[in-house]
Amino acid sequence: MTAAPETDAELPGYWAALGLPGIVDVHVHLMPDRLQQKVWEYFDAAGPLLGRPWPVQYREDMSARLGRLRAMGVQAFTGLLYPHKPDMAAGLNAWAAEFAAQTPGCLHTATFFPEESAADYVREAIEAGARVFKAHVQVGGYDPRDELLDRVWGLLAEAGVPVVAHVGGGPTATAFTGPAVFGEVLARHPQLPAIVAHLGMPEFEGFVELGRRHPAVRFDVTGVFTKFGDDLWPFPRAEARAVLTELGDRILFGSDYPTMPNTYAEQVAAVAELDLGDEWLRAVFRENALTLWPDLQL
Ligand SMILES: [Zn+2]
């Protein structure tokens, strides 16, 4: 086993020791500055919400944030963004398309909200080359079974474009988070290449069961297995290790960078310390993502 990194500065050496030229992070958030500031304000205020502070680690301007990502050896990353109200997603999609076009390593991302125009702007985004979508059921406060989204899920399933789906009940549940509701979406759209964010935290078991039923479903490990994640919703290790081995080719690394409550190295170490072997780590940090986006030039 390669020793886990303790600091961000050790990350490039850690990848090299694993035999990787760099990694793919499927859960990075990059958004227009005004929206980013609002998100950070939300997390700053999340102390009372969670009964604990959420110390945003990488609050820097965009060029510093991107430079840091590359310096840590993250060769490709999503730039996820998401709306919290109607009439917002199409504008975000325009921003994201332009941003990705001028940002090496950034996957072209898009998003949606249950609204009349959703199917049209999602189709346009796919035609314009969007490689990954983000659905934030909790922040959006919507029902993913909303009939305005049925065509959206269908389009993503047909095109085979992955959607990072925050559908678990962490950090705060809504009436529409959890495996039962999203299971209905998957039952209607079994080919949907959903990437269940945060391993479905805190409903790990229910989402893993959905993954077993739907081979197109993947998972990201964002926020799981860290001290912060364990304090809130631990995923018992023996159970987690069994599940992560079983679904090994469908587990993807994600960090929530820059709005993460711990350092990047801590998230990497949390995954490394699961002790599932270097081959499993190479798959999770890089190779599994390259099966989703085989034409990535890394
Ligand atoms: Zn996120």
UniProtKB/TrEMBL annotation:
Iron among the record's keywords? no
Protein's recorded name: Amidohydrolase family protein
Query: Could you name the domain of life of the organism this protein comes from?
Result: Bacteria
**Pfam families given for it?**
Amidohydro_2
Native organism: Sporichthya brevicatena
For whether the record's keyword set contains Lyase, the answer is yes
Q: Which SUPFAM superfamilies match?
A: Metallo-dependent hydrolases (SSF51556)
Alphabetical UniProt keywords: Lyase
Domain Amidohydrolase-related, first and last residues per copy: 24-294
